Amino acid sequence: MKVALVHDFLNTYGGAERLLYSIHQIYPEAPIFTTIHNPSKLPDFSPNHLVIPSKTYSTGFVRRFSKPFTFLLPLVFEQLDLSEYDLIISSTAGFAKGIVTRSDQLHICYCHTPPRFLYKYEGESNRRMVWYYAPFVSVLDSYFRIWDEFAASRVDLFVANSQNTARRIKKYYRREAEVIYPPVNIESQKILERDPQDFYLLVSRLSAYKHVEIAIEAANKTGKKLTIVGTGPEEERLKALSGPTVTWEGFVTDERLAELYSQAKALIYTVQDEDFGMTPIEAMSYGCPVIGHRSGGLLESIQEYENGMFFDEYTSDGLVKTIGSFDSHTFEPQKAKERAKDFSMDVFKQRFSEFVNTQTHISI
């Protein structure tokens, strides 16, 4: 059986790309079709990975100014020639599910979320709401929603990264989805002794919808030490809000991140209605408890008072209140580590392989 993988973009490295890499480990001979490919941003992918970027979308000019050419993406994915493959697995939070397949081909879509920007969820930045963008964006989004729903109807089987995402798929596409949680590569981690110190940790891409300012404001109000790992479009604005107890680490190596997870009192996670949330699982794998908002995918991973705590009011004051309660509670690192094992690479590979094999009726 010939297998192909399709992914939205390969010009950055995050949870979706780690998931793609995990699927590729199951099907190492499968080529990866995408729009833009930047090998320098993909640490897990070797030169031996066959990545086939779109000729239309990866030309120099379009690649450099890709955002204004988003309207081309439906056409780009529909034009991909996948005729020689029996099984096509798309990994997407955007347009990759729009590939066109024949009736004798099987298209399984691993959906990280329906496109956030199309269904009124916050996105990477707030620029779409600027007055001179908004009218144009509104018209374009209406077209994209029609196309997105039609593209979803061509998918044979949906897999969701959480129950939260499965509910979105049901609401917007009227389709059922199998839930298979994405993996955290616990097996390859350096074992570090838990050594909590007097600081809280935040690890995040600095995007508008992540609302990192909630944690910064909480640190400013309480005088608690907060270490922030990550970069992104909101970095300059967020640094301007930071008080003297906020430390910025920027991009860090895996070794440094492991140290921070092992030493932090807790990970603070400020996303509301998160699709799933892999960073909290990573923190738990080092025995680090998590403080997150009581919503979205975190409800499926955090067990309150076992491996973390929730804040209910989505403000810095709400977070301050929970931090106060957290400081008076004792967490056992082993409970967090045990919870993280439920999301291991081995568990993911077994569940995903079993699901695909059941659908194809053969062992791949």
TrEMBL record:
Keyword check for Transferase: yes
InterPro entries on file: Glyco_trans_1, Glycosyltransferase_grp1
Pfam family, one: Glycos_transf_1
Top class in the EC scheme: transferase
GO molecular function: glycosyltransferase activity
EC number assigned by the record: 2.4.-.-
PANTHER family to which the protein is assigned, alphabetical: SULFOQUINOVOSYL TRANSFERASE SQD2
Protein name stated in the entry: Glycosyltransferase
Originating species: candidate division WWE3 bacterium
